[in-house]
Every structure is written in structure tokens, then in C-alpha cells.
Amino acid sequence: QLQLQESGPGLVKPSETLSLTCAVSGDSIKSSRQYWGWIRQPPGKGLEWIGAIYTSGTTYYNPSLESRITISVDTSKNHLSLRLSSVTAADTAVFYCVRYTSMVPRWSDFYYIDVWGKGTTVTVSS
Amino acid sequence: QSALTQPASVSGSPGQSITISCTGSSSDIGGDNYVSWYQQHPGEAPKLLIFDVTKRPSEVSTRFSGSRAANTASLTISGLQTEDEADYYCSAYTSSHTLVFGGGTKLTVL
After folding, report:
1. Are residues A46 and B102, on separate chains, in Cβ contact within 8 Å?
2. Which residues, in sequence order, are CB contacts of B66 under 8 Å at separation 6+?
3. Helix (H, G, I), strand (E, B) or coil at A20
């Protein structure tokens, strides 16, 4: 059964870089030919799409965050990572690691999310 | 990109039907058929309810249905049950190859 486990510091100082890792178990990122990525949810607010990365490393980012984010995969460790630079209090959120699906067999795209991690809370505060 | 527009809250009594709307543009909701709905209970990750505007994953109850008219998608829940009380989010894959979510709707089952 596919499981996603986010990890990283729960507290980040303003202007610093937030770094999160997502360990994937139950599937191989390298052979999956799927999209993987990140979604965030500020406290008491809605979901915000951060971005998606394909097995090959091709990335798609939220235009409003693009200048500050980097999503990468490490196929040797079977994990993906998120870096968000120059954080402010507005970046405080629960960050979810996700697997995307097209719901079409043998077609890869990031139309929908079918697997979510449990989420990790990151607070930006001095 | 702008978030899709959903009502902040809706409510209904057990057994009734409710509909949640989600309004966007021709670049997202009104574009391709990649419109979806998610259900999120407090403290949990969201769950996919509807994809391709109207389709349900096999494990989702037939009480949940989706539709679309122009740039507005709708989620209808029939035969409301207490366990349906949750937050609901619409989402669309855009013509710019991004994903956008609605602001979320809190469903209260009275």
C-alpha cells in the first residue's frame, strides 16, 4: 500500500528557507511514471496547490509561488523534497505530500490527487 | 491564478439533499473535463470524491454526484448523513497546466 510521510522542521524563522522531505513507501518513484508534489493548507483556510514533479524531474509550479519554490525527487532514496525560500508568517501551513493521477490507465498527469500524506505543520515565527 | 469561488457554508438536515457550487472561468472549470471535488474531515487529509466532472471513484458512495454548467461546477449530496459533515473543495486543472482549488465549503448537517 502506497504511503507518503512528510518530515521537516516544525518551526522556521522569517526570511529563511523551509525544507521538507516526503518519504515514499509501497511504490518506486523512478518506475512509477507518475506525478508527485505538494499541497498546503494554512490554519483554518483552504487548500493551495504548490506544484508537481514528474518522475523525470519535469516540474510545474503555482505561478504565485514559483519564484520561491523548488520541488525535486531523489530516486535513489525514493523521496521528494520541497524548498520554499524567504518565508513569512503567511507561509505557515500544513504541508501535504501527494501523488497525482489522471485516473486514466497508462496516462500520467496531475489532474487529481489520489494519495495524500498525513501532512506536516510548519510555523513561520521568530 | 485566482481561487475558484465556493460558498463558505451550507447546511441541511439528515435525509435532505444539498448542492455546493464552484465558479471559475473558461480557463479552468469551463475548459477541459478535469474538474474534481474533495471531502476533508477535521484533522484529516482530503479525499477524492468526484473526478472528470461527474465520475466517482469506486469506493465513493453514489449519494455524491457532480455536474457542470458553463463555468460553474456543482457537487450534490443526496440523503444527507451526519458523517457527511465536512469541508468540501472543488479543483480544476487549468489551461496553463496548473491546479487551482476553491476556497472550500463547510457543510453542517443539522
Report:
1. yes
2. B35, B37, B49, B50, B53, B54, B55, B73, B74, B75, B76
3. strand
pLDDT tier at A32, thresholds 50, 70, 90: confident
CA distance B87 to B102: 11
Selected residue of A95, A111, A116 to mutate for chain B interface (largest B Cβ count, 10 A): A111
With cut-offs at 50, 70 and 90, classify the pLDDT of residue A102.
Answer: confident
Which is nearest to B87 in space by CA: B37, B41, B21?
B41
Among A48, A63, A111, the residue with its CB nearest the CB of B101 is A48
For residue B25, count CB atoms less than 10 angstroms from its CB and return exposed for 0-12, middle for 13-18, buried for 19 or more.
Answer: middle
pLDDT in tens, A42-57: 999 999 999 999 998 9
Please give the residue of chain B at the shortest CA–CA distance from A111. B93
Per-residue pLDDT reduced to its tens digit, B41-98: 999 999 999 999 999 999 999 999 999 999 999 999 999 999 999 999 999 999 999 9
